[in-house]
Amino acid sequence: MDRKNISKAVIQRLPRYYRYLGELLEEQTLRISSQELSERMHVTSSQIRQDLNQFGGFGQQGYGYNVEVLYHEIGKILGIDRKHNMIVVGAGNLAQAIANYTNFERRGFVIRALFDRDPKLIGRTFRDIPVYPMEQLETFIRENDIHMAAICIPKGSAIPVAERLVSCGIKAIWNFAHTDLNVPEDVVVENVHLSESLMRLSYRLAGSDAKEE
User: Fold this and answer.
1) In a designed cystine with 131, which of 98, 114, 137, 196 is the match (CB 3.0 to 4.6 A)?
2) Are residues 185 and 117 in the same domain?
């Protein structure tokens, strides 16, 4: 499987498959057809088959998909079958919410530390996760096998912080700062611009309102 040939649209659907399959496991469902999964997810059954066929298929004609097997296989594809040590740069309200969200650990993302410049935050803990001063950033990353970081700081500081992260080996950045980052090609960035998401929601609402007029 050449991951470079997998479209972004398929990659964006994989976590949804994983979530729905997890719910099916909780319901003790042993197998499911693409049609049944389609009705749950509101994705066409042909789309489901096309998506999964890009990774090997996993289904059997006349049987459907083994829920547990497919759940674990998609977990492997997403890379959440192993532990990822990560840090959060920033310790404000958003960073604290991320630190306090226990579901990340169940998915293999272990937040080891937060970093901030505010003396009032340094030394505090959130769900037993300590806040360290920015001066200790590079040392902590190198000594604790950290390869992933979340950036939850104002955009004016995000770019130099991203450069610091990359310089000491960070290979994946979850970027909440409202700016685009320039990083080497071997560093992956997932941007989460909350205001842009709200604007897209507003656009869709405006379109809905226009239809009603």
Assistant:
1) 114
2) yes
Q: Which tokens go with 65?
A: 């998909």
- Each of the 213 residues of the chain gets a pLDDT tens digit; together they read 555 578 888 888 999 999 999 999 999 999 999 899 999 999 999 999 899 888 876 766 667 899 999 999 999 999 888 899 999 999 999 999 999 998 888 888 999 999 999 999 999 999 999 999 999 999 999 999 999 999 999 999 999 999 999 999 999 999 999 999 999 999 999 999 888 888 988 988 887 655 665
Quick one: 44 and 95 in the same domain? no
Distance (Å, whole) CA 66 – CA 68: 6
Angle at 78 between CA 77 and CA 83, to 5 degrees: 115
Please check whether residues 53 and 118 belong to one and the same domain: no
Cα 73 from Cα 54, distance rounded (Å): 13
What pTM was computed for the model?
0.82
The pair of three-digit structure tokens given for residue 164, joined into one six-digit string: 């610091």
Q: What is the span of the domain harbouring residue 64?
A: 3-77
Q: Are 73 and 144 found together in one domain? A: no
The C-alpha atoms of residue 35 and residue 45 are separated, in whole angstroms, by: 5
